[in-house]
Amino acid sequence: MAENNNVLVTPETYIRAECDRQFGTIVKTAGGLNRFYHLRSITPLDGQSIIRMNRDTLYSQSVVDTSKGATITVPELPPDRYVSVELVDNDHYCPCVIYEAGTYELPQYTKYLGLFVRIQVFNPIDTDLRKDELDLVHKLQDQFSINANSADPLPEFKWDSESLQALTLQYQKDAAQYSSVKGMMGPRGQVNEDTRHIVVATGWGLLPEWDAIYLNYDGDHDYNICHKATYDVPDNEAFWSITVYGSDGYMEEENNIVNSSNVMPNPDGTFTVYFGSQENCGDVSNRVDVTKGWNFAMRIYRPGESVLNGTYKLPDAVPVQ
């Protein structure tokens, strides 16, 4: 596929152009249509392709030609592990997210459809457990299958790359005015058509908010001082995680995650997270290392009502005395 053609990208065509670009990348990586590319390892610090990546899940990705009918078969899944299959069409709508085993007919809103499998990784920073954990996830990944009756090659990429990139950068700047991405991803007729281009530029393939909520925190704290905050467990039907980033949005420390599989709760069911080095914080549970300009994202998968309606709030982190 050519990467630089001459059809100018406008605000009206931006979403389709970016989806064409993303689909092309996935097909190239997978080695063709109607087949999965499985990410097999936890995101390494020196292999972060975009900002604010996570280590909570391993991904499998595919683009399917649905024009003559296609199905995805989801294997039997462990009851205690989050697994989802997100469908993203060529206009960046999400018709549905699949959570149960079975064979599903894929919708034909657009000829080409993206499939994104997410499988939870328990305690991803525990190197002693990681091999067995990844072996289990890999076996699950290999059991997903696609059956499609057509494999027409993607059309040649027709969009002008410079105008596409310029709009992406502009929309990424515009994103600062929004406190959340609510309403920016979901099925046709259930999204905000005036704002959904923002998430295409900043988080292409993002799950709809009823499938995952992302709460960001940036307290502008001195990283040389240990801070702590105590949290209620967010209402959810799957799991939650906190991932710490540096000022540029990239993970900078290996010890950067507290989640529902490795947290040490308080007697009352809350949990306290310590942000700082062991030297500054001492030998405490739920401690994450931080760097200058640290911030974090709390991801809540299959969030409950208090998260969806905004009553669940993140407290401010305070210095440890």
UniProtKB/TrEMBL annotation:
Signal peptide: none annotated. Pfam families: DUF1214, DUF1254. The lineage of its organism: Bacteria, Bacillati, Cyanobacteriota, Cyanophyceae, Oscillatoriophycideae. Residues 217-304 form the DUF1214 domain. This is DUF1214 domain-containing protein. Transmembrane segments: none annotated. Residues 34-89 form the DUF1254 domain. InterPro entries: DUF1214 (IPR010621), DUF1214_C_sf (IPR037049), DUF1254 (IPR010679).
